[in-house]
């Protein structure tokens, strides 16, 4: 893992993400690109070009000043840090930065949930997940030393998830981490017998050319099953497939992906299908 992008707005959540990225970078010798996207108002665009230039120059200088303070942290000492300022808050442009610098991973902070309002849905983190061509790691809580040893990958093991699965294998290999595969079996319309579940899983692994084993974990809901299984093996990270612009994959039913990210205390990484 050579290069990591951390989009920041200079908030506490941004710093939580930056700390996690710094832990990964220090272990893997990675370079960190710290990305800030300016927001030029629609009203500004109706002004003349000189006014636009002056305002944009002011915002860039302000961002540079904030960068200087934001990046002056002990945990960043000795790491290669490259600040980048984009003029507009267009998440699809992040892919241009990814391609230009051959970036491997995006790390973002997120509020998650306050127990009443689902903050992740419609948030900057979700927009990044929808637009990113590379894995996006979402961090909610500060982790003093983010050391990934055990990664859970959960999906329904339908053929459409093979590409995301292969990306998960590649990612865990880069971290020298162990990958644990889980199929969550729940009561109701989506229930599969043990025989049917293993038949689906076997076909999936055969097409994916993988010899890894899959745990069938029974629980009352998919979200609960993912959390309980991950906690039972002391996982450091939960991986899930994503449909990109369709948002986090609804690979079982409803908005499971968003629910897992919102409620999980364990960091979550998404792999695009």
From TrEMBL:
Domain UspA: 1-140, 149-271
Matches recorded under CDD domains: USP-like
InterPro entries according to UniProt: Rossmann-like_a/b/a_fold, Universal_stress_UspA, UspA
Family statement drawn from the similarity comment of this UniProt entry: Belongs to the universal stress protein A family.
Superkingdom, taxonomy of origin: Bacteria
A Pfam family that the UniProt record links to this protein: Usp
Protein name as catalogued: Nucleotide-binding universal stress protein, UspA family
Species this protein is from: Arenibacter nanhaiticus
